[in-house]
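Below is how a single chain appears once it has passed through the pipeline. First comes the sequence as given, then the structure the pipeline wrote out for it. We keep one example in the README because the format questions we get most often are answered faster by looking than by reading.
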Amino acid sequence: MSDRKRSQKKKKSQSRRRLNTNLITYTATFPNGAGGVIESGTSGVISGAVGFSTSFSSEYSALSTIYSEAKLLSVSCTFTPIASTTTLAQSEIMIGLNMGQNATTNAAPSSFSGVENLRGMQHIPSAFLGTRTYRVRLPRVRNFLPFTADAPTLPNPDAGSPGALQYYGSGFIASTAYYTMFIKCKWLLKSRI
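Resulting structure:
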């Protein structure tokens, strides 16, 4: 092999090793609603939906001036029981991922049939010790969307921050707080530079 070919091969391998300095992973944790509290309604039903978006981050304003695009890498939800297990009726919620919705379009289900066939469906009882983490099994998100519009009004399951968690449960005491729920998201951000 000639010296010229060796030199070109070495330059190619060096250029491949360079870090892409305009990409960064960013993690944010935010509550589901006010203080993360999930409570039953007046009929003893717990129903809700939560999507994922960079706009839920406390650093959103600062990040939006630096980064122009985002795509979701992972999501997990941490549940903590807050209702007394000795004096209240206990039940469970069913939770799963709906890829046809996102943070802009999510809607709470009105029955168990709205959640029983969702992706990664699990049961979360209202009585357990400690915390329970639900890891969302996202399909691989291939494409970036604008940082300020990562959850568009027309959901795209292959770009930005797709999907929304939906949960439903019945048999609870009416108007009672049962859980706290905090969502942790990790995004890949791309800078303007």
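The mean pLDDT is 87.

See the next section for the split statistics.
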